User: Fold this.
Amino acid sequence: MKKIFKKLTLITAFLGLLLFQNQQNLCSVKAATISEYEEKPLTEQQNQEMVNNSDRGFRLELNLNVKTGMGLWGNADKTGIAQMQNAIATFADDNPRLAQVYFYLTDYKDKPLDQTAFNNMDQYFQKLKQNHLQAVLRFAYIWDDAHPKSQEPTTEQVVAHIKQLAPWIAQHRDQIANLQAGFIGAWGEWDSGARSRMNEKAILQALLANTPKDLFIQVRYYNIKSRNVDPQSSDWQRVGFHDDYLIGRPHVWNTAGADPNSAEWKAMAEQSQTVPVDGEMIWGSANASDNNGQLISAPLIAHRLAVHHFTSLSIAHNYKEDGKDYSLSAWKRQLVTPALLDQYKLPYQKSWFKDTNDNEISRSWYEYIRDYLGYRLAVKDISYQADGQNIDYQVNLTNYGLAAPVLINNAELVLLDESKNVVAAKDVTDIAHLQSLQILPIKWQIDKTLVSQAKYLAFKFTGYSNTGNRLANNIDFDDGYNYLLTLK
Assistant:
């Protein structure tokens, strides 16, 4: 790789001389290409920077009673913020950048939200921001699933709360990765009994009408979307999914049911290419009753995450709850190989199985899901051609992740000067739909006088948090910029 870079630097310098010597020498086009750009393995630090990428990967699970500011269940004796800090410490080694946040409106089931509720939500989101966490947000009323009707609001009250919450959601848009439909049923999970008692269409339509149009809404079951949203409307493209019952094998409680050959299953597979999908396994303690006493199969989970293009997965479930080791812990000891990934038709970078000295290294299923959940973008190759007036760059970007980077809303190719100031930039508008193993050619024709002012060609991509993300290439990464080439 060093030889390739040295060769490119020499070619670039040669072209620079041609460009400024005399116009007559510019008639013939000069060209250069770096191929196999993504094949140099990442360093340990670079791997850690990849885990820091936003809008993808493992997530926490947190809850808050918005009236009292306290947690619930086993955390009822702690403030919601104390619970958050405990969770961050517990999963520090996993470094999740997302947190599913349940805001329970239980105390307001028959009245408007007051300033106390908004103050508690504001303080909570301030603490999320301090810890660089994006929220997968869900509002709910019923936390006592043994007595759900005692905590259940009317449809009219839910719609009124949605309208009350609208300005708050808009204000905190940059901290919300996506919003789960919530509100109906125990934990906001839309169980069939609660759905039969509520006007679910009125609630979902109110949510779509009173939230930012660029904010995805995730629903628990596919038929929530198909029954309540017009496929011809722009809202159809806003509705994603969350599956809260992952056990590896298909189950009737899955978002699209238990039959991989069903129309719903296939529709979810297609639609999940362009919307975010969140998931969680059952609790580890439920393995005995719900999974025949077995740990959940890592390859089956990975395959399911790929088929329905999951962007995030709970790290709170089936890992190390109750002081015991469950499936995720076991996956750290279960090795994955290129042959196994090929068998399950799962994407990967060949260089992921090597260290920086080009030695083969062992990888676990835990590492695979951590690193490939959601998007994993890399530059495959770079080429350019220079003539008398312009330089034409082409950067071929590929995605090795299980899902498209659907929550990335800004990407640009930039020229930076020696002081890292932007000389010129090109917006990349179609990155969010870059599917697994597909290539996005980014073409940029730019005047050579601008190139002469620049020292670096770089790439930056961000979500609504405006945090720059790292490419899966062994290149410099600083202040959100991926440095592709040094031009002089």
About this structure: The first helix runs from residue 2 to 21. Confidence is low (pLDDT under 50) at residues 1-29.
